[in-house]
Amino acid sequence: MTSVKAYRRKLDLKSGRVDLSHGAGGRAMSQLIAEIFHAALDNEWLRQGNDQSIFDAPKGRMAMTTDAFVVSPLFFPGGDIGSLAVHGAINDVAMSGARPLYLSASFIIEEGFALADLARIAESMGAASRAAGVPVITGDTKVVERGKADGVFISTAAVGVAPEGLELSGDRARPGDLVLLSGSIGDHGVAIMSKRENLEFECEILSDSAPLHGLVAEMVAAAASSLRLMRDPTRGGLAATLNEIAQQSGVGFRIDETAIPVKPEVAAACELLGLDPLNVANEGKLVAVVAPEAAQALLDAMRAHPLGRDAAIIGATVADDRRFVQMRSSFGGSRIVDWLAGEQLPRIC
Amino acid sequence: MKYVDEFRDGELARGMARRLAKIVRPDRDYRFMEFCGGHTHAISRYGLEDLLPTNVRMIHGPGCPVCVLPIGRIDAAIELARKPEIILCTYADLMRVPASGGDSLLKAKAAGADIRMVYSTLDALRIAETEPQRQVVFFAIGFETTTPPTALAIRLAARKQLSNFSVFCNHVLTPAAMRAILTSKDDRVELDGFVGPSHVSAVIGVTPYRFVATEFEKPLVVTGFEPLDVMQAIVMLTTQVNEGRCEIENQYGRAVSPQGNLKAQAEIADIFDLRESFEWRGLGEVPASALRLRETYAQFDAERRFAVETPVARDNPACECGAILRGAKRPHDCKLFGTVCTPETPIGSCMVSSEGACAAQWTYRRFDEPTREERMAS
Ligand code: SF4
């Protein structure tokens, strides 16, 4: 009696490493996909084992996004590249007010990457997508030679369906609108930096990586017609997001430093590194520009949701041809809040 | 964290502003130079100018190590980095500083030079240990604050007998620069006092500034970098001016002692000696204003090991950094400000350095030149 098992030894998930054969399209690749990705992400679509998935599309307008994740380190306090890739794509769809339905995931893996780490990332991805109720229904795997990638890169896409009549867009902010922020800023960036090689510092801050579609649904239910736009302030932080909206809508912003929630540990870490929390990345926060009359109702709806507990009104849109984002400092003086020039770099003295 | 919050209390700041408004004499102007770019940024970032009476004016000084480095020294560093055997280690601040012909360390790195951004001198030392077949050159730059870590790296390299580690030394001295400003022949600015950097004094103490009071009859207050520190220093300087005093005062008693850090001073003196003269951007050749490695440590001196020559290179003639560094002009006075010259397309280092005056103006105060009264009224 021979069984399948006699011909195929299980992957060595303890000390095995990804090699070029795992991306070559042969048996090794099929095994890697079955034992790591399908095991972790299991659902009815993946189980069919096709190169694509057929799914039912609800009537209405669809939203779609794609996002690539090249984070270093891969594992950080509060998350890892797997859960981040799930949350990032979900949030980009959610910011249109749409309900995310399905995800795809594509992996670029560097030769030599530990199978155990890959399994850990896939499991975290599975857990994140199950918790969010958005399955990964198709995927792709490539292996590149050592030195041609940094461990693992993941690219995810998400599709969703947008509610009838809801039009959220970056060019819809009007003077007099109010700006809502769902919680404290800078947590993700500081969590990542605290673990960067050469920078490591003691810090209790966890990344805020989280799927925001639940919070968005509450906001849409509370006052859909008063929402102008939403955006998640990821890379470039709150500063970049507000500047983007200012450019798109042709308006300025006046925000108030004392109204913006920043955790004391985040402020301290930024101080140490010479960074401004306004420029630091977030992965579980959203900014909404809303008509003033509904601001309080929306704020209440946000605060009732666990991911919006610390939501705040942080400022307003103003008419300004120069499209400046200005902030009143805690001292009462004014300053510009600018995009970051180049990379975020710690200072020298 | 509490520690920082105490120095950022808006209520306290407004209280100080009211006090300042009460003590300034309406019949005169007060022009104070904040020597250090760190203060410039604190002032811009917190909008402190909005809290000052209109006849109290802050003038930006030269205290930014990246801004005062002449272009030729960056050219020389790029030249070094292009040698195949060399790994050039540098603080990230320097990467985007314009060199001759539109070049920069960042561009040289993209073109294949082995340039590594490090966070400390010890990172550079570690690279030298792990890559013994390569020559590691540390691009050392900064005022008295960053000199002790460079000294430490040289001391360790000597102890470990590392033959592949050297330092391209560009350390400069604060008091010498202050003297150069006070004696500048070009376009000397009228000043009523200085805000002195506390981190420099943490190393050298306050005594080296005595000449500012005795020879030039200007008050100086050594000050921390929190916005409240700066406000308090301005109140102290104004008080001195009103009382006709000119003394060296220490606002930052919580960390600076009059004699400074004697151990660090001894370490610096052991490893470095004075250059007869050094070129500063904006100030020209300034005698006894910079350090180089002593003969005893010559083997760790990249300039000697690789026979570095500093090419004579000119700044873009339209760039006003020089006058800005002397306090004679403001960033807005430069025709290129915000048009040709932005942080993404810098013409001068003042626009890219994290302590540069043009960068501070651009990043935090890029209003379309409204008067301060207009801003206060809005
Ligand atoms: S704006 Fe640019 S060109 Fe003008 S002085 Fe500043 S750095 Fe130089």
Written account of the structure:
- The complex is a heterodimer of chains A (349) and B (378).
- Chain A has 349 residues and is of the alpha+beta class.
- Chain A folds into two domains: 20-162, PurM-like, N-terminal domain (60s Ribosomal Protein L30, Chain: A); 178-336, Phosphoribosyl-aminoimidazole Synthetase, Chain A, domain 2 (Alpha-Beta Complex).
- Helix content of chain A is 30%, strand content 22%.
- In chain A, strands 8-10-7-11-9-12-13 form a seven-stranded mixed sheet. A four-stranded mixed sheet of chain A has the order 1-6-4-5. Chain A has a two-stranded antiparallel ribbon with strand order 2-3.
- In chain A, α2 packs parallel to α5, α4 (81-94) packs parallel to α5 and α7 runs antiparallel to α10 (295-303).
- Chain A is globular and about 70 Å long.
- Chain B has 378 residues and is an alpha/beta fold.
- Chain B contains 17 helices and 13 strands.
- In chain B, the strands form four sheets. In chain B, strands 2-1-7-8-9 form a five-stranded parallel sheet, with helices on both faces. A four-stranded parallel sheet of chain B has the order 4-3-5-6, with helices on both faces. A two-stranded antiparallel sheet of chain B has the order 10-13.
- In chain B, α3 (37-45) runs parallel beside α16.
- The two termini of chain B are 33 Å apart.
- The model of chain B has no long low-confidence stretch (mean pLDDT 91).
- Chain A binds chain B through residues 198-199, 258, 264-265, 267-268, 271, 274, 322, 324, 328-336, 338, 341-343, 345-349, and chain B through 1, 4-5, 8-10, 13-14, 38, 44-51, 65-66, 91-93, 95-96, 117-120, 123, 141-143, 145-146, 199, 227, 342-344, 352, 354-355, 359, 362-368, 375.
- The site of iron/sulfur cluster has 14 residues of chain B, from α15.
